[in-house]
TrEMBL record:
The keyword 4Fe-4S does not apply. Residues 4-130 form the Ketopantoate reductase N-terminal domain. One of its GO terms (molecular function) is 2-dehydropantoate 2-reductase activity. It comes from Catenuloplanes nepalensis. The lineage of its organism: Bacteria, Bacillati, Actinomycetota, Actinomycetes, Micromonosporales. Its EC number is 1.1.1.169. InterPro entries: KPR_N, NAD(P)-bd_dom_sf. It is an enzyme of class 1 (oxidoreductase). Pfam families: ApbA. The keyword Lipoprotein does not apply. Keywords: Oxidoreductase. This is 2-dehydropantoate 2-reductase. SUPFAM superfamilies: NAD(P)-binding Rossmann-fold domains.
């Protein structure tokens, strides 16, 4: 597979490495300081807090050109509008693996309906200088493979080929016929979670404030109740039905754990804040 990975953040970098090491023809697109760091040292990876840093020579590009079998997009929701025009000049299917609750229509309007695929990358980690510190696999992450789907829910040969290639590279993927509902459900949960963690000063600080966790839970419930279709996966129904006395301790335990610590919840940058604002607006519009 000739593959362009659009976005060299934590998850995009991990994905590019796995596909490169699986033998695919990978180009990792980066800009600015990230591009300069990758050209100096290549991709640098470490698991969690391990002192062992691995260097991988993934090809890096600043300005892609030509035909690709697949373009995978790993950017934040508020950055999508700015990259649609450059994507329109390239050839190949485009799989958006990101937080997104606006559906396929604005993407298809720029790229063409037949080129757009939707999904969500479930990996995580942090960026420490130019080293990607990725989250070690756990029972929780294994239980939620990467959902990918056609916007209209069809099962197509191209989707099956992509999922098989991802799995072979160690990037677990499953076909999701209700991908739009899946992305909206995730946004309904992630926006209150991210905004509450940022307001508190990080997931551990949020866990220390039971009242703030309870307030976050109530925001999640309002979002989930307003969805136009049942949540996907249905496990999110538990957030609407189980009592506060049970859910608040569970959420606090999650916020104190390594999964939350090595995720975007610890990112208090303006970029992270802007993404949650865009996702919240997308939810309101839907």
């Amino acid at each position: 597979m000739k593959l362009l990975v659009y976005g060299a953040g934590v998850v995009g970098t991990q994905f590019a490495v796995r596909m490169h090491e699986a033998g695919h023809d990978v180009s990792l697109l980066a800009r600015g300081e990230r591009l300069a760091a990758l050209r100096r040292h290549g991709v640098r990876l470490a698991e969690g807090e391990s002192p062992v840093v691995r260097q991988v020579p993934v090809p890096v590009v600043e300005t892609p050109a030509g035909d690709y079998d697949l373009i995978t997009v790993f950017v934040r929701a508020h950055q999508v509008a700015a990259i649609l025009e450059p994507l329109a000049t390239l050839h190949g299917d485009v799989l958006f693996l990101l937080n997104w609750a606006a559906g396929a229509a604005p993407l298809a309007a720029a790229l063409g309906r037949d080129r757009v695929l939707l999904g969500f990358a479930t990996g995580g980690g942090t960026m420490a200088g130019d080293v990607v510190r990725y989250r070690a696999p756990s029972l929780l992450t294994r239980a939620y493979p990467v959902p990918i789907g056609e916007p209209d829910g069809r099962a197509t040969p191209r989707l099956d080929r992509i999922a098989r290639a991802f799995r072979t590279a160690g990037f677990p993927a499953r076909l999701e016929p209700r991908i739009n509902a899946r992305l909206r459900t995730h946004a309904a949960f992630a926006v209150p979670l991210g905004q509450a963690a940022h307001a508190a000063g990080g997931p551990a600080a949020l866990a220390a404030d039971p009242a703030a966790v309870r307030d976050m839970l109530h925001h999640m419930r309002r979002n989930l109740a307003a969805l136009p279709a049942p949540p996907v996966p249905r496990a999110f129904d538990a957030l609407r039905t189980l009592p506060d006395g049970l859910l608040v301790p569970v959420l606090r335990r999650f916020l104190r754990g390594t999964t939350a610590a090595h995720s975007g919840l610890a990112d208090s940058s303006l970029t992270a804040t802007a993404e949650y604002e865009v996702l919240a607006e997308q939810l309101r519009a839907r």
